[in-house]
Amino acid sequence: EFMAPQYRRLRAFAEAHGIRIILVDSDGYIEALTARMLEAGVSALYPFEVQSGNDAGHMLDLYPGLGIIGGLDKRVMARDRAAIDAAG
After folding, report:
1. In whole angstroms, what is the distance from residue 42 CA to residue 72 CA?
2. Do residues 22 and 46 touch, judged by C-beta distance below 8 A?
3. What pLDDT shows up at residue 3?
């Protein structure tokens, strides 16, 4: 209700200037808002936090054109290389 009109304005400006990506930082669980964000002109989301329950693979199945940055579990990354490799 509040953000969609602003995202549409940004999308119109971006398209008029050859900008293809509208990237929005959204912390927390984003699945319930993703369709609305895409409809409003957003094309990519980050950091797509795993610890918040986001599943990048599932979202890409639902929205193949969605740009995702992140999809990593920061809790594992804060440990050590072995933990990161094991999370693979």
Report:
1. 21
2. no
3. 94
